[in-house]
Amino acid sequence: MRISLMWVALIAGLSATAEGQEVKPPPKVGVVNLRICSEKYDRVKDIITEMEKMREEFQKELRQLEKKRDELKAKIEGLSRDMALYWEKVGDLKLTEATYKFKAEFGNQRLANRMIELQIEVYNEMREVISGYGKDHQFDVILRVEEPQIEEEGKPDNVLQRINARVVLYHSPSLDITEEV
Which residues contact 43 (CB under 8 A, 6 or more apart)? Predict the structure, then answer.
């Protein structure tokens, strides 16, 4: 009985193709690990250098303000409250402290915003390269695949978000085209 069912299925398949029905090939699928790609992408190294330079300049600015604050405090200690110079230096101190607070808060935000901008640029550049590769090599779909970093120290509150960000739960190693891209 099994053999006869197999022959029926085979004959039905042959007659379907013989009647002019087009048999579509299975979709060509690939996966790419963007983390590995970004580690090999020279532009990422340039971005890291740029961010380190910005951070150093930011820290230098804060150190200069701290030094100015300390100098003003030392000058104020030697002055009498009756002197006009005392109140001028107190005003300068308050202004320096406010400037420090402002730069510390908004400087960090500026650095974070710049980092996000650069990450988006790199992501778009990598997508463009991967899309071109996919078109050139006639892929139907290329998926992003990487292991979520579930156990980041000090950041347990977004574990679920990192798990949900995973696009592919399983893939055959033969689908991985990361090295080729």
Answer: 122, 125
